[in-house]
Amino acid sequence: MSAYALNKMIRDVNRDPARREQFFADAAAFAASYALTEEEARAVVTRDVATLYKLGVHGLILRPFTLLHKMPEPEYLAAIRS
User: Fold this and answer.
1) What's the confidence (pLDDT) of residue 1?
2) How far apart are CA 74 and CA 2, in angstroms?
3) Is it the case that residue 2 has pLDDT exceeding 90?
4) What is the distance between the alpha carbons of residues 16 and 30, in angstroms, rounded to a whole number?
5) Domains identified in the chain, total number
6) Hey, how many other C-beta atoms are within 10 angstroms of the C-beta on 76?
7) Model pLDDT for residues 35-77, shown as the tens digit of each residue
8) Burial of 13 (0-12, 13-18, 19+ CB in 10 A)
9) What value does the mean pLDDT take over residues 15-27?
10) Angle between helical axes of 3-15 and 59-68 (0-180°, round to 10)
11) For residue 70, which phi and psi values (nearest 5 degrees)?
């Protein structure tokens, strides 16, 4: 597992508009440019918040990522509590 790479990738999407554009254009290709496991890449591409949280994405990085995807707070909280 590469929790550091996963957190870094999501942080880059959150903070860098150019990287964010790349992610929204082709999430799979973007994820492939980081040292992620197959499970991590799949969770990113499918926006599987529960799995991302279980894989070690910090809540202070994950919540802004979900806001970019317009995920309501109750849905986010339910996902990380599952």
Assistant:
1) 54
2) 28
3) no
4) 13
5) 1
6) 20
7) 999 999 999 999 999 999 999 999 999 999 999 999 999 999 9
8) buried
9) 97
10) 40
11) 60, 40
pTM assigned to the model: 0.91
What is the C-alpha to C-alpha distance for residues 36 and 77, in angstroms, rounded to an integer? 25
| Domain coverage including residue 18 | 3-81
Q: Which residues contact 32 (CB under 8 A, 6 or more apart)?
A: 41
pLDDT, residue 82, reads 86
H or E segment and range at residue 80: helix 73-81
Q: Which of 12, 81, 18 is nearest to 44 (CA)?
A: 12
54: domain CATH number is: 1.10.700.10
For the record, the structure tokens of 53 come out as 């949280």
Q: What are the C-alpha distances in Å from 78 to residues 18, 20, 25, 40, 53?
A: 30, 25, 28, 20, 12
